[in-house]
Amino acid sequence: MFSDNGDSAVLQREPRFDDITCSLRSVNKLPGAVFKETQQVVAMARRFNDEVVKPQALELERLKREDPEYLAWDMVEEANRRGFYSMFIPKLFGGHGMNMPALSYMLEEIGSGCTAISNLVGVHYLGIATLCGSWNTRLMNKIMRDVVEGEKTGKPCLVSLAITEPGAGTDTEEVDLVSRAKVTCHAEKVPGGYRVNGRKIFISNGHLSTWHMTIAYGDLDNPAGTTVMLAVKTGMDGFSFGRQEHKMGQKACPASELIFEDCFVPDELVCFDAEQAARYSRSMEKITMQVLDYVLSASRAGVGAFGTGVARGAYEEALRFAQETEVEGKLLINHEWAQCVLAEMYKNVALARLSYIETNYANGMYGLFKVLHFKPIFYLMKYMPQSLVDKFLEPFLEYDFVTWIFRKIYFDWQKDEEYERTSGWASLSKFSATDAGVRNCELALELMGGAGVRNDQVAEKHLRDSKLLQIYEGTNQLNRLNVFKCMIGRSAPAAKVFED
Amino acid sequence: MKCGIDPELAMFEQTVIDFASNELLESRQENDRFPCVPLFSEVLTKARAVGFFSVTMPEELEGSGMGTTELCLLLESLCRVDASLAAVVFTDTLAKEIVYRARGFLLLEEIPGRVSEYGGALLAFPSQSDPGDCAGIVAEPAGEGKYSLTGKADYVVLGGIAGNAVLPVRTGDAYSFFLVDLAGKGITVSEPVQSLGLHACPAVDITLDGAPATLVGDEGEGATYLELAAGRMNAAAAAMLVGVMKGSFEEAVAYAKEREQGGRQIVNWSEVRRMLARMAVKVKAADMVVSELCRSAEDNMPGWEMGARVAVLFAGEASTDVTRDGIQVLGGNGYMEDYGQEKRFRDAAQMRSLLGLAPIRELKLMERYLAGEPLF
């Protein structure tokens, strides 16, 4: 009765069994210590919310309104002092080595108090993820240890991702689109490195970051085949900051313009380019998309967490208001219609959270941090003293063959269905959770009425903060197309994506 | 909103459109930074000079004697560019309509000036809440028809710039309206309250400590006067939302025709085009509703006030979707203050709570219908 008589074939039908059981499969594979670590991280984040975020969120906004050039260095320094910027850096690279999925829980927690402050932490890990997506272990070690050093010295060392350009936003996140995009950030190969000219815009945390993982193009007529990832450091000749954008919300997290004017980036700071990609079996375009997918599969779960956080923040403000306010002669919380609204908001939070959790299970088995979740490696890194890691393991990171091994694992040996799974789930979480976030904010304002439009009641800030979540990290429309590409269209032979 | 074949209405609409383009468009982003920058006083002075204040009051009360249609045209056309000035006009008109309906003609004649020329002409009002929910102020008779007010009035729109305010106060089981001289004794006005939208239509919290006040109309008749003003003012609120939606839609289409991604104009991506189509459906439907409503109002058709209640609820919901998508079509640029879309999103969200919570207004609509007030 229970023998395998063609079960594989039926299980491969849509929806594919492996796609819908990431959490179930993780039950036995996930190291047990992940639970305890996540508990610790959430407790830390809640204390941070109580002590710092909630007391200061509105004040940070006020400072930014009065001075559009204001930068929240105090907040960044406080997060740095608490170890947030190295918390999720693997011990192999000098960090605290907390499991990556716990970051999403942390971002939700902080985001329930202020999405902007959550971005000040989360966007740094977008930069880290981009660096890791290149699997250039020497540079990964160099830059992540800079971050750790910044924690020790009290001088924060943040990492940003610089990809968006004035003429190319959505285009830059899909190889099929970038091939037709109007990109202008040119990386010209010169002796000893690259010379970069162009501008990047809307770069989150730009002005606050030390390292900028910059995506540029060797041939502007063939960007998909000549993508270059460069590590550009603040202060390098030819690199400067331009304007800060005047955003509707998320004001404490700057959206920066980065300007490259004959900026020379030496070979030792080239994370990834066509020359390096030539050693692997897939095409440059395919590998570029893999790199993007590894990064976005991790980062979009983070944006799902931002969405969950703002959905929760709006729900909590609405719940508080309903318990304190009389409408038509009785407490709002005792109006049946209000109870239904609050239940709807609660549902939105719960389902948004489940979406990023499931995405992280997928990433843990098939994505960016799958190696770290392999139980022997997880426990080795967890219990090996840092001094021994630094003495016996770190030196290997300098060797090309270590980079080669990681790239073999992550580029050549990743199956199509694996990156479809992680990429598809990440996009699904991103657009679902952020739509839920905006929806909850709108419901909160509906429930709070005139009080809801006051800045000092917080809900209106959540609404302004939430809208950007539907736009960055790929608009929700692009993310829907990615779900189609990864999870639906693959089973429809006639389907074509980005060819409307 | 259709002006039909009435040339006077068409001329009036064009006058307002020209005013909005000349006086509001260029400084819209800067004006919205209030209170971090000065209020757009010059614009308010000009608005008064061209007769935008007191538009529905008779000429003997320094008004233009306009009806519901003209009021809706004015507000819609202003909102297409910048809703803040429209919100000033709306609040002032609402307060004056209530006083007028209470037959407080002498009060309207005697409104003293204060602070500035335009301020003296304006009446403040807590337009973001249902007057029936007022509970923060106590009124004590002070002899000779005068009263003394003590308590707190939150979010009084225009309270920081107007000469006087009309405030609802609970008196017994009902509520009454009182006219308060904001320069009088016992009045403390807060700094402008930072709000979601409509920044250049500022509001303050007012603390009253034995502040002298004049009863507007009869005691306990506040609900009656609000009811008499409600039809026109609900139509006006709906028209404002239509204006914001039109502005959002037009800017989204213009951008989609210019911006290229994936090698073509984004208006040629079917999902973007469908988003614009859904915006168009909602804007046009709301526009037709307000046009029809104005026609019913001018003809004084029975039950037109219920139509006004429906119109503002419908336009409110539609405006949330339209302005949200209005940002989305512009992508990252839509989120930035340099473009008009994020302001429209905020302004529309703020306007949804004019005169109280939308869900409560929905419940009251059904209460009226169940009590026999016809809907069709």
**Residue ranges of chain B: pLDDT <50 for 5 or more in a row?**
none
What is the CATH architecture annotation of the largest domain in chain B? Up-down Bundle
Largest beta sheet: strand ordering of chain A:
1-4-5-8
The SS-based structural class of chain B is alpha+beta
The domain count of chain A comes to: 2
Under CATH, the topology of the largest domain in chain A can be stated as Butyryl-CoA Dehydrogenase, subunit A, domain 3
Q: What topology emerges from the helices and strands here?
A:
The complex is a heterodimer of chains A (500) and B (376).
Chain A: H1 7-11, H2 22-29, H3 33-66, H4 73-81, H5 101-113, H6 115-134, H7 137-153, E1 159-162, H8 175-178, E2 186-190, E3 193-204, E4 211-217, E5 227-233, E6 239-244, E7 255-266, E8 270-272, H9 274-277, H10 284-324, E9 326-327, E10 330-331, H11 336-366, H12 375-383, H13 386-393, H14 400-412, H15 416-448, H16 459-467, H17 476-488
Helix pairs in contact in A: 2-11, 3-5, 5-6, 5-10, 6-7, 6-10, 10-11, 10-15, 10-16, 11-15, 15-16, 15-17
Chain B: H1 7-24, H2 28-31, H3 41-49, H4 68-81, H5 83-101, H6 105-110, H7 117-120, E1 123-124, E2 137-143, E3 146-157, E4 164-171, E5 174-181, E6 187-189, E7 203-216, H8 222-258, E8 260-261, E9 264-265, H9 270-298, H10 304-329, H11 341-351, H12 358-370
Parallel strand pairs in B: 1-4
Antiparallel strand pairs in B: 2-3, 3-7, 4-5, 5-7, 6-7, 8-9
Short description:
The complex is a heterodimer of chains A (500) and B (376). With 500 residues, chain A is of the alpha+beta class.
